[in-house]
Amino acid sequence: MMASSGSFIEVANAADLIQRRQRSDFLSNIKGTLSTAIKGQPELIPSILMLALNDATTYDKATKSGGPNGSIRFSSEISRPENSGLSAALSLLEEAKKEIDSYSKAGPLSFADLIQYAAQSALKNTFLASAIRKCGGNEEKGSILYTAYGSTGQWGLFDRNFGRTDSQEPDPEGRIPQWEKASVQEMKDKFTEIGFGPRQLAVMSAFLGPDQSATESLLASDPDVFPWVQKYQRSRESVSQTDYEVDLIATLTKMSLLGQQINYEAYTYARPKVDFSKLKL
Q1: Which of these, 80, 93, 161, 240, is most buried using a 10 Å CB contact count?
Q2: What's phi and psi for 168, nearest 5 deg?
Q3: How many Cβ atoms are within 10 Å of 265's Cβ, its own excluded?
Q4: What is the mean pLDDT of residues 232-261?
Q5: Angstrom distance (rounded) from CA 18 to CA 3
Q6: Are 196 and 251 in contact (CB under 8 A)?
Q7: Dist CA 55 CA 67 (whole Å)
Q8: Global confidence as pTM
Q9: Are 176 and 217 in contact (CB under 8 A)?
Q10: Chain Cα centroid distance, residue 92
Q11: Pick from 166, 128, 168, 124: which is nearest to 145 by CA?
C-alpha cells in the first residue's frame, strides 16, 4: 500500500510539473506577442495602462463584484466617458489575442489575462526605455543596465497568478472616476475603496493619464500624496529606479487580482498518448 501511495504521488508530481511547464511556455509566448505589438505602437502605452487600471478598479469590495475581469471589452463599457480614448488600445490587444489564440493548445486566452499582461509588457517597455535614456540612447548598454539593476526579477508573483476568468457582462456604471478630470481627493477616495492609499496612488501615476508629469504635479498638491510622489520621482532619477519599479509591480500585482479566483490549471491540456504497440522498431 505504501509503495502504491508513493507511485501515485510521483505521478501526481510529474503531472503538476507538466502543467506548470505548459502554462510557463504559453505565458512566455504571450509576452513575446504582446511585446512585439506594443513596440509597434508605443504611443498607445498610456492607454494600455489606463485600460488595465479601469478594468480592475470597477471592483466593489462590498459586493465583491467587478475587478480585472475583461468586462471593459464590451462596447457598452469601453464607450463610457471614463474610458474615452481607450478603444485603440483595446483594438491593438484584440489583434494580438487573435494571434495568441491561434497558437494556444488549451483554448483562448481570457481578456482578463490579456489586459493585465499587456500592462506588464507596457511597463517593461517603459522601464527599458528609461534605462536606455540613462545610457545616452545606447540600446545595448541600456538593456544591460536594466537586466543587471532593474526589476526583471520582481514579477514572479504577478506571473504565477495566470488564469483570470472573464465576466460575461459589463460591470456596473459609476464605479470609476474620469481620472484626467478628477480631483486628487476623488482619486484618493477611489483608491481607498479598493484597499489602497496615497502611496499606491502616487506610484500608479503613469496609469492615470497620458502625461505622467502633469498627473504627478496634481498629486503633489495633496499633502498625503506629495511625499510619495517625491520619493518615486527621486527613484526614477537613480540608476536603477528600484523603489519605483518594485512598488509599482507590487501595486499592479495586487490590483490585477481584485475579486479574482485564479484558476491555476487554466491553459493546460492533455498530452497525446503514444501507442507503443504501433511503433515500428
Answers
A1: 93
A2: -100, 10
A3: 12
A4: 96
A5: 23
A6: yes
A7: 6
A8: 0.91
A9: no
A10: 15
A11: 128
Name the CA dihedral angle for 55, 76, 214, 255, rounded to a multiple of 10 degrees. -10
- CA 58 – CA 174 distance, rounded (Å): 9
Please check the confidence at residue 8 and state whether its pLDDT lies above 50.
Answer: no
- Do 211 and 43 meet the contact criterion of CB atoms below 8 Å apart? no
3-state secondary structure the chain: CHHHHHHHHHHHHHHHHHHHHHHHHHHHHHHHHHHHHHHHCHHHHHHHHHHHHHHHCCCECCCCECCCCCHHHCHHHHCCHHHCCCHHHHHHHHHHHHHHHHHCCCCCCCHHHHHHHHHHHHHHHHHHHHHHHHCCCCHHHHHHHHHHHCCHHHCHHHHHCCCCCCCCCCCCCCCCCCCCCCCHHHHHHHHHHCCCCHHHHHHCHHHCCCCHHHHHHHHCCCCCCHHHHHHHHHHHHCCCCHHHHHHHHHHHHHHCCCCCCCCCCCCCCCCCCCCHHHCCC
For residue 85, how many other CB atoms are within 10 A of its CB? 12
Exposed, middle or buried, 106 (CB in 10 Å: 0-12/13-18/19+)?
middle
- Contact predicate 235/202, CB 8 Å: no
- How far is residue 115's CA from residue 44's CA, in Å, rounded to a whole number? 13
Q: How many CB atoms lie within 10 A of CB 165?
A: 16
Looking at the DSSP assignment, which residues form a beta bridge with residue 65? 60
The neighbouring-strand residues paired with 121 are none
| Percent share of the chain, pLDDT over 70 | 91
pLDDT at site 10: 54
- Total count of residues recorded for the chain: 281
Distance CA 169, CA 69 (A): 10
